[in-house]
Structure formats: C-alpha cells, structure tokens
Amino acid sequence: MKGDRDRRREGHQGESMGVVEIVEPGGPDVLLLTEGARPVPGPGEVRVRVQVSGVNRADLLQRRGRYPPSPGSPENVPGLEFSGEVDQLGAGCRLRALGDRVMGIVGGGGYAEWVVASERETIRVPDGLTSEEAGAIPEVFITAWDALFLQANLRAGETVLIHAAGSGVGTAALQLARAAGAMTVGTSRSPDKVNRAVDLGLDHGVLADSGRDWTEGVRECLDGRGVDVVLDLVGASYLEGNQAILAEGGRWVVVGVPGGARGEVDLGRLMAKRASIRGTVLRARPPEEKAVLARAFERVVVPLFEAGRLRPVIDRVLPVASVREAHREMEENRSFGKLLLQWGESDG
User: Fold this and answer.
1) Same domain, 12 and 133
2) For a tag site, which of 104, 164, 280, 315 has the least CB within 10 Å?
3) Are residues 81 and 118 in the same domain?
4) Residues 63, 76: one domain?
5) pLDDT range class, residue 11, cuts 50, 70, 90
C-alpha cells in the first residue's frame, strides 16, 4: 500500500498498534493500514495480541457503508474475528490467564494488532492448531454450528442442503453435519468449488449455475426426496427453490442474503409441509447470549478439532498490508474457505 507507511508514522500518545481503517465508504482501495492507540481492558475483559484476523463478507458490507458495527465498536475499523494471545487482564478475570491462546468474535474492530473482548466470549485455541488455523474457526464454525443445531435442530440420519458449500460457513457446515451423522448436499455456482467440497467430505455436490433448476440436481441425488434442513447462505434468488425442496417438517435457516433480501413465500406450501423458516445473525446478539454461545462452543465443538474430526479450511493467509487484495478476492468469489490477515510472523 504505497503511501500508507507515512500515515502509520503519525504521532499518537501512549502505546500504539497497527490498524486497518475505512477512510470513506467504497471499494477495497478505501482500506488504509494506519496506526491507533492500543485498547485497555475493562472489568471482565481481556486484551489479546492478535496474530490473525479473519476476513468475512460483513467486512465488505461495512466497508461500503451498508453494515454498521455493533454498539461500542469502531465504525471505521472492520473485522469480526481474531486469534492470538492474552496479554492483559481486566479486573475480576478468572477464566483466562496471561499467555493463553484464544480465538473469538468481536462486534467490530478486528482488523487490529490488539483487541479487547469479554473473557467469557473468548474460546481457547484447540491443542495442536496454529494461530492461522485458529483464526479460520470462530465466525464460520460458530455460525454454522448455531444455525444447524441450535436453530434447525439437525439430527443424525437427516439430510441438510448447504448453499454456497465452498464458502467459509459452507465448508464448516458440511464438516459439522457429517460429524453429527447427517447426509450433506451442497450447491455452488463454481464447478471447482463443488469438486473441492466433495473432496472435503460433501456427500453430494450440485452445480447451481448449470442452465437448469438446481432443485432437479438435488432431487436426483436424493432419489426424489426433499431435504430436512436448508442452510441458506444465498437469500432471495434461491427462495423459490428452497420452498420446493423442503421435506415435510423441514427447517430452513437463513444466514446470508447476498442474492437478495426480499422475495415471495408461499405460506400455503409452508403450512402443508409443516415446515418452518427462520433467520439468524451473530453480530446483533446481546453480549450475554454471545458469551453463552462461546462457552457452549468451547465445550462441545473444540474437542472435535482436537480429535481430528473437524479442520479449518483456509484459502490463503495474507499479510495485513494485502488487505485490499483479500477484499477483492472475496468480492469476486475466488476464495474456497477462509481468507486470513496475518499480523507479524507465522507460528506454523
């Protein structure tokens, strides 16, 4: 980023840190690597020296001025997830200790060398994983686990349809579903992503940009049957197909809407199938709910990483100076799995 170095040298009082700022709403070029003051943890909070920041589609929306951060989070610094080491404790902390390796989700401001988070919202890094691997876990695996099991109540022996199966949440969802004994069907508009998802363990891959209705491909895979759960990471453009493909008693969870947020729902068809549809987000939830979710995720899901039943899927790890390139790659749908930004040297 030519010209950014001078901006980083501008004076600040006290301890400073690297931070990525949005200088104005717009494309990737509005992202600037600059310098800010290190945060100080309050009671019940820990400060984490960040080694890896995850890149998510919400960051792209925030950069364009279309997704405001959570209250208390900086408006001009994107970033929802991190991995690193605890380097300062606020008053009353008992769960974490200095030097603990942790990962987690924040309401914003994650593109920074230091972040402050409630210690109850942090999650211990699974044994044997690098900071890069840990950085690829929080947003996608917590989102997928919550949507599939806490929202849709997916059970062993059921079938789940995962749209955008090559995305970060998609690759996490297919692994979690398989670990629970469910059958997985995934869609993608990219033949390469379909094939890579199958290599990762997807039971049936369906090309959603093949010139025919993708529901035909799903029914062929399932011998004409519908699906018990739809994990919808696309939105309105797949709305008609999702209604058609749901089995009786099916549950449809909307997690992302890059394909549009508005469309028509046939309530009669939903009633006849005794099916349900619900939306979910993580970012807007109250802190206590996020803390409960983090504690449950650490207890239930982290051991699956340690047992080798789950693994983070990383597309690329880029130096934070290449943040604009990371945003372009995600906007162009070129990534499979997670894009990560690294602060400093790799530990693995």
Assistant:
1) yes
2) 280
3) yes
4) yes
5) very low
Confidence of residue 304 (pLDDT cuts 50, 70, 90): very high
- Determine the 3-state secondary structure of 271 from DSSP: helix
Cα–Cα distance for residue pair 199/188, rounded to 1 Å? 14
User: Alpha-carbon distance 235 to 239, whole Å?
Assistant: 6
Burial 289-317, CB ≥16 within 10 A → b, else e:
ebbebbeebbeebbebbeeeebbbbbbbb
User: In one letter, which amino acid is 56?
Assistant: N
Q: In terms of Cα–Cα distance, which of 136, 171, 126, 128 is closest to 51?
A: 136
Reported as a single tens digit per residue, the pLDDT across 54-90 is: 999 999 999 999 988 888 889 899 999 999 999 999 9
Mean of the per-residue pLDDT values for the chain? Answer: 93
**Domain final position from 226, 250, 279:** 279
- DSSP sequence for 129-178: --HHHHHTSHHHHHHHHIIIIIIS---TT-EEEESSTTSHHHHHHHHHHH
- No. of helices (H) and no. of strands (E), the chain: 12, 15
Q: With beta carbons less than 8 A apart as the criterion, state whether 170 and 163 touch.
A: yes
Provide the strand spans (E) within the chain.
16-22, 31-37, 45-55, 81-89, 101-105, 114-118, 122-124, 159-162, 183-188, 204-207, 227-232, 246-254, 276-279, 314-319, 338-342
Within a domain: residue 331? yes
**Three-state SS sequence of 194-221:** HHHHHHHCCCEEEECCCCCCHHHHHHHH
Residue 252 CB: number of other CB atoms within 10 A?
Answer: 23
Amino acid letter, 248: E
DSSP designation for 112: B
Q: What CATH number does the domain containing 129 carry?
A: 3.90.180.10
